[in-house]
Amino acid sequence: MAAVTAFTASSRLFYALARDDAFPFRSSFMALNRYQAPYVGVWLSVLAGCVISCAYIGSAIAFNAILSSAAIAVMLSYMQPIFIRVFWPTTSLPERGPFTLGTWSWPINMASVTFTLFICVLFILPTATPVNQSNMNYAIVAIGGVLLIVASVWLIWGRSHFTGPVQTLSDIRSPKETPKVE
């Protein structure tokens, strides 16, 4: 059940990023099938899930690197808005909502940023000493590879095409204007 949820979420993310022109092949990622599902994103998510699952058959080390890097990526994604709130000038941030931690906001946010960075370092450490090829944690290599790919796509495509998320419903294509597959 968790896999279905992950595939659904990632396919919707593909669709939203394509809608906002964040990466190449926009029309392919926006194509909907007769059930109004972004089928290219669904199949890419399924393919990625299969490749990750096959990594365990080939090498437990590779599978552990994938799991560690996924945990680190999730932790860093949680940390980003907190980090921005702590270190960005408050005049350029959106107005605070009805819930606030008051004077405790800054120390709690700093503690969460510090703790997240500490946990990320722990996830990168090898599992045993002395470190050799069989017990090395290759999560840092996986994260570096993903960051390199994302930075390349941004520099080659996103920087010149992506203007930010669609702001109004009138800017979003209707299903009738979206390419379909029968």
Automatic annotation (TrEMBL):
* InterPro entries documented for this protein: AA/rel_permease1 (IPR002293)
- UniProt-recorded name of the protein: Uncharacterized protein
- Where is this protein found? Membrane
- Please list every transmembrane segment annotated in the UniProt record, as residue ranges: 42-63, 70-88, 108-126, 138-157
GO CC terms of this entry: membrane
Q: What UniProt keywords are attached to this protein's entry?
A: Membrane, Transmembrane, Transmembrane helix, Transport
The protein's predominant localisation is membrane
**Topologically, how does it sit relative to the membrane?**
Multi-pass membrane protein
Q: Annotated Gene Ontology MF terms? A: transmembrane transporter activity
**Listed Gene3D superfamilies:** Amino acid/polyamine transporter I
Is this entry keyworded Iron-sulfur? Answer: no
